[in-house]
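Weekly puzzle thread! Below is a chain. First person to post its structure in token form gets bragging rights.
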Amino acid sequence: MTDRRRNIIVLGLVAALLLASLAIIIPGLPTSKQTRQGLDLKGGTSLVYEAKPTRFSKVTSDSIQRTMDIMRDRVDNLGVAEPEIQRAGSNQIDVSLPDVQNADQAQQQVGTTAQLYFYDWEKTVLGPDGKPHPTDAAVTGGQAAGTPGQGTQSYYEAVTRASKFPATNEPNDTTNGLYYGVDDKAKTVLCGPQEALADIKETCTNAGKRPSSFVHVPRGYVIVQAENDSTSKAAAAAASDAYYILKDDPSLLGTDIKNPEQNIDSSGTGQPNVTFDFTSAGRKKWQATTREIAQRGTALLLPGTDPRAVANHFAIVLDNKLISVPYIDPQQNPDGIDGSNGSEISGGFTIKSAQRLANLIKTGALPIRLELISQSQVSATLGQQALHQGLIAGIVGFAIVAVFLLVFYRVLGIIAVGALFVYAIYFFALIKLIPITMTLPGIAGLILTIGVAADANIVIFERVKEEVRAGRSVSAAIVTGYRKGLAAIIDANVVTFMVAFILFILATAGVKGFAFTLGIGTLTSLFTAVLATQAVLGSMGRSRFLHSPAALGAGEKKRSWSQDFMGASKWFFSMSGIILLIGALAIGGKGLNFGIDFQSGTRVKAAFAQVPNEKDVSSALRSAGFKNPEVQKVKGDKALKRAGIQISLGESAPQTIAKVKPLLTKRFGTPTAYESDSIGPTFGKTVANSAIIAIIASLVVISAYIALRFEWKFAVPVLMALMHDLLITAGVYSLTGREVTTSTVAALLTILGYSLYDTIIVFDRIRENVPRMPRAAFTQIVNRSMSEVLTRSLATSFCTLLPILALLLFGGSTLKDFAFALLVGVVSGAYSSVFIASPVLAHWKEREEVYRRRRARIAEETGGHVPPTPRPPTASSWTPRAAGARATA
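Winning reply:
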């Protein structure tokens, strides 16, 4: 295939893809797609759960998948548009609920285990001696069974009392025994229940609780919370502080019922209830259970006695809470209830709570237990502001990169800018088509790929300019420049893609968007920046627009760098050593300021029409039971759009944090903008471990790739340069006191890819020059190579920094976290790629026998001094190269 035909085919493909992309992007067309926005742009609630095993189910891929399917059904019943439920790591589930602002309600609906059991009340409720007493109202509660009052005790009393009972094996028991964390001095239960001692310790730690002891309730017993007091609306909404001890022997399970629906009581009260039918097996169990209950009541029924006074009950328990304890009338149902017409659950429901219970029963119980380890909430106001900031940063980043290319490369720059426009359209279409849920980290990845795409153009354009200056025609220079530059571009982009892939696999959900967009953008840029521009330049190679070398920016004489880089290497090493020492002292003294992503706690940002006083906010939080809240005013916060407050709390338990927003609203008015992040220690450990594994994995993969593409001795200087960049970045974070977040980790991993870009450019030229300089010392080869590509390395680094500066200046707090780490890392990487990796490689290779002999021969010829670069050949020493060979690099 001729070059002309190939160029026409590529340009035709570019045009066809461009039209298809526009059809996807332009609103109103039948083929157009919507852009999916993440929670940080749209507002909503994010929940991260850790899976825990139960007696009946271990944490496996299958059980997690079944749990996620049930959670999706529950979310569908909430009516949430475009929810995302995905697995994170081996045992975590990430739930994103756009537009959902009530985090507590979402958690109750989505993450509740929903284990439903039916108990024969009088037969299973236990007295202080651990035995049932069906006729003793002091144990059963009598006609007020299930409500606070007779037979109840405090949570602490119930747990400690049950812990002294002997273990039993009941026919239908549901646990192997349960652990609780208690405060014996205050006589309160702090956390639990959990089936394993290790789990209860972890749960207490996650909740920020320090129990004085852990109590074990043996197998055969369960502690259930009494029904809420329904004497008033306020009492009905509050959780009961009364508890019963039951023998763990339910008569029916949640799987024995079907078709639950929210309904209205048909007896005339008009109260909401939940109706349901029984399965075939459930109907038989129901008949047998209610018959036994009715017969006990009949045995006690004397002439003239009110049936309700001797009626026995059955209890409906959902996740260890009594929902209802209705009685069975022995006169109306002497043989029990056959269940043909189903049954109902009633008692103090609102329509919403009845709907919630019906939905939970309908979707079924989760096969494993879930523990909420992270919760965040962003208001729609903050989301829109973040989107606006991200778009501005993207537009500015694109614009300044375009200006740089136009000024530096002229006609080539026009082609590169056109390729960037095409790249942007392709990428936007891919975002809609896949679809990619756009988040703030995703926008950061998108903006950074602008630099990736431009860097590829710079590498090739510098090669083309070299060939033009060497005397080739423009068309020949284009072909040769692309051929010689392609290897370095592919190597650099493969490394960036591998780092993005590792980050996507190991990172938390918030950073996955960044990794995904970075990876997709890298692949897309290879097409637009290499194939597309090559086809355009190939088609224009003989046109008058490219006739003059000046049109390519190659009209002036090339500015060469003639410094002895290897001779000055000891100064480079010394300077880096001093910087690293300062950073190490800062890290050892001050340490790093880890954010709540890595530790635990809660951070709340809120804006009000009138900003409250810090002391008033702190006092309100202390009165509500929050210990040592840190409150400070935030002035000029871009996300809040006005002054607001930031609250830092040590607590991370979701039930506790759910109180913050209602408290602020009640005391200071409805927040105009609200954002909260709550992280448990378990999640923080997961983030830290994932970060360490991701960094190690990236270093290993990068080393292996460099060793494969070059040789293993090239990989060691690369590792040293990368560690140099990571340590300097960490030192700068310590010196500045800037907070280390998950965004910082993502940026650090990205630095690993970007730092290699310049290193690969230099190493590629060294590899190219080695066979061209068969008599030179390796230090001379490296000096020559660095002199030839230094301008190119500086240009690529500068072009990468331009969009980073846009992020730093115009982005919100999340984008600035990325940008700051990237700014430090890219500057350090540009330095280490040239002045650390290359000298280390040169000094190491010089120890090889072949280069020792060359160096000795050169020193002998020059009187003991080895010049920085080879001297021009003389008539007495010069040997002609093979015909057709070129000396240009």
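Puzzle host: Confirmed. Bonus trivia for everyone else. The longest helix spans residues 474-506.
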